[in-house]
Specification:
six-stranded mixed beta sheet, globular, mainly beta, 38% strand
Length: 172
């Protein structure tokens, strides 16, 4: 049996996750599978748009709301699994901002996007950060790692992070 959501005039195929290794370890990976159980790449195989009108987009949840393990889509591994970021040999976590624990939104990325590190943006006067576009989803439901979530864009903001342009797209 195949599960589909109807969004606009286009069928949307459901995705699920395959977890390898324990959370908060160097071995932890979350792979995304299509409805046939085939592992797919969140960068290359999941469409950016979820409807024919291009008004609803797919986002990949990397860090669910109220969690603080800094997870991200791997650019270097086959099928681009989601894994915990490492800095100076240690797993990364975001700080808690009292009274909240972890991110106050679902944080992730848009598939099939990339911030070009060779191109200077005219507004920020800085090059891209060599990552997909970041997404902050402020809806009421808490996401799950690897969830493919349908969202609508509310706005954008550009941050400068270590001299690179790092776009954040605010969605619901």
């Amino acid at each position: 049996r195949r599960n589909f959501h109807r969004i606009g005039s286009m069928s949307y195929e459901q995705y699920k996750t395959r977890v390898v290794g324990a959370p908060n370890t160097l071995e932890h990976r979350v792979y995304i599978e299509n409805s046939q159980g085939k592992v797919v790449s969140p960068f290359h195989d999941i469409p950016l748009f979820a409807n024919a009108e291009k008004t609803v987009l797919n986002m990949i949840v990397e860090v669910p709301r109220w969690t603080n393990a800094k997870l991200e889509i791997s650019k270097d591994e086959a099928f681009n699994p989601i894994k915990q970021d490492i800095k100076k040999g240690k797993l990364r976590f975001v700080r808690n901002c009292f009274p909240h624990h972890g991110y106050i939104w679902n944080y992730g990325a848009f598939p099939q996007t990339w911030e070009d590190p060779t191109s200077v943006h005219p507004d920020t006067k800085a090059k891209g950060d060599n990552d997909p576009l970041d997404v902050c989803e402020i809806g009421e439901l808490v996401g799950t790692v690897g969830q493919v979530k349908q969202v609508k864009v509310l706005g954008t903001m550009a941050l400068l992070d270590e001299g690179e342009t790092d776009w954040k797209v605010i969605v619901i």
